[in-house]
Amino acid sequence: QVQLVESGGGLVQAGGSLRLSCAASESIFSINVMGWYRQAPGKQRELVAIITSSGTRNYADSVKGRFTISRDNTKNTVYLQMNSLKREDTGVYYCYALRAGIPPADYWGQGTQVTVSS
Fold first, then answer.
1. Taking 90 as the threshold, does the pLDDT of residue 111 lie above it?
2. DSSP 40
């Protein structure tokens, strides 16, 4: 099984930046999709950003232009650079990995808290 460990969350003022990291337990060459979800208090978990093994990126409309997802294959790590943070970005951020197959397999990290103050 793929194990995912997130880090980098914390408290930041609105307009500030944070960078989240997600380290995978095996080479991310074998993982087709990695990304980030978040869950705000009282809300459902939502997709934030994903990146495929080929480098294709997708973002939620609410974070486009502010967040950047990237991958470092030598470190088996995916990052989420979050700039111009807003109070609405507050929540628990979860790393996600998908390995394509029949059937596919997906994995979740334990989450890291991001709190944006005003």
1. yes
2. -
Phi, psi dihedrals of residue 30, rounded to the nearest 5°: -90, 0
Neighbours of 31 (CB within 10 A): 23
Whole-angstrom Cα distance, residue 100 to residue 2? 13
Q: What phi and psi, each to the nearest 5 degrees, are found at residue 65?
A: 85, -10
Q: Which helix (H) or strand (E) holds 79?
A: strand 77-82
3-state secondary structure at position 118: coil
pLDDT tens string 52-77 = 989 999 999 999 999 999 999 899 99
Q: How far apart are CA 65 and CA 33, in angstroms?
A: 21
Question: Rounded to whole angstroms, how far apart are CA atoms 115 and 47?
Answer: 17
Cβ-in-10-Å burial (0-12, 13-18, 19+) of 21 comes to middle
In angstroms, the CA 97 to CA 64 distance is 21
Q: How far is CA 71 from the centre of its chain?
A: 11
- Other C-beta atoms closer than 10 Å to the C-beta of 24 total 22
